Amino acid sequence: MACWASVRSAGLRHSAQRAFFSALDSCVDCPQHGPTVAAVPWARHGAGHTYAFDDQVAWLAVHTSRTAVAALMRVAWRTVGAICARVARDGQQAGDRLAGLRRIGIDELSYKRGHRYITCVVDHDTARLVWAWPGRDKATLNRFFDLLGAEGCAQITHVSADGADWIAQVVAARCPAAVRGMDPFHVVAWASDALDQVRRDVWNTTRGGKGRATEASKALKNARWALWRNPEDLTEAQQAKLDWIARTHPRLHRAWALKEGLRWVFTLARAGFRRLAIRALDRWLCWARRCRIPAFVDLAARVTTHRQAIEVGIEHRLSNALVESVNTKLRLITRIAFGFHDPHALIGLAMLALGGLCPPLPGRASVT
């Protein structure tokens, strides 16, 4: 700060001089110490731009396309990523964003080819993204709970997540007082995957071998959409396809009925009939275990393994719907930010857009 005092005493206060020094990475020519990197009040330390420039770039990155930001501000897209990362970092350091967390949702998002993932934590009460970090393993999630601290972990009451073992094990170890609920969306997705396996098996059996095609196998074409879609959303053609499957492929139709039966369990839970939903889950498990369809027998075993977490989700109406909504927006941000080579730049943009850290435009108190 002695260097900065020398700069001030030299009268270097004009905006043009400020822009010049900030462009030189806050490098000043101190009469006492010579060329020196000094802390200046108009730019972040180590940054090549002023606070106002950084904030404007960050705001534009949240609200417009990468091409427009780079062209308007005359910077490279990689520079935009670095600016987003440091503006978000400053926003997170301005206050304890993890204070007061009670109900959280945990999920992972693929952001790049080669199994590159980001683990995200969302606050159910504020609907905001509160933390994200590259990776999807125990070490990554433990990093979040280390930041939260022992006292913060003790205050967590509800955690929603999918059936990943690494999430369940870390939550059980770090937040023993919290209840972990399985997300209904993922459970029904398991049933859809089992149904698709049965559909492929039936199609392979019907066509009689690789490279062959029969009239019956051709008739099964596009049956996937009729089987996957909710019955109330079926078109006339899809309903006709489903009726044809019921007449010609009873095993496949039984698999579809099992999928719909499991979906109905969570429909009852959403309607408030939680006890009825749990009884319906019991009956569905008995049906699935006796169905003699291997994919659904395996699914029944998987549901039994996660039975406690599924019941918690039903009882407390825990769902990862909010987390999935955040993930959908993150995928859009990922597509917008495909030029970011550093995952921390992507995380910075995500925290600005979804974590409530987007700064106002310079000279304005708030953004509408």
What's the short version?
The chain is an alpha/beta fold and 368 residues long.
Q: Tell me what portion of residues adopts beta-strand conformation.
A: 5-15%
What is the tally of helical segments? 17
Overall pLDDT level: 81
* Count of structural domains: 3
Strand element count: 7
Radius of gyration: 27 Å
Walk me through what this model shows.
The chain is an alpha/beta fold and 368 residues long. The chain has three domains: 2-93, no CATH class; 103-182 and 320-336, Ribonuclease H-like superfamily/Ribonuclease H (Nucleotidyltransferase, domain 5, 2-Layer Sandwich); 184-316. The chain is built from 17 helices and seven strands. It has helices at residues 2-9, 15-23, 51-63, 66-73, 77-93, 138-155, 165-174, 184-207, 215-219, 223-228, 236-248, 250-270, 274-290, 294-305, 307-316, 321-336, 343-354, and strands spanning 27-30, 34-37, 103-112, 116-123, 128-134, 158-161, 179-182. The protein starts with a helix and ends in a 14-residue tail after the last helix.
Set down the secondary structure blueprint:
Layout: H1 2-9, H2 15-23, E1 27-30, E2 34-37, H3 51-63, H4 66-73, H5 77-93, E3 103-112, E4 116-123, E5 128-134, H6 138-155, E6 158-161, H7 165-174, E7 179-182, H8 184-207, H9 215-219, H10 223-228, H11 236-248, H12 250-270, H13 274-290, H14 294-305, H15 307-316, H16 321-336, H17 343-354
Parallel strand pairs: 3-6, 6-7
Antiparallel strand pairs: 1-2, 3-4, 4-5
Helix pairs in contact: 3-5, 5-17, 6-7, 8-12, 8-14, 11-12, 12-13, 13-14, 16-17
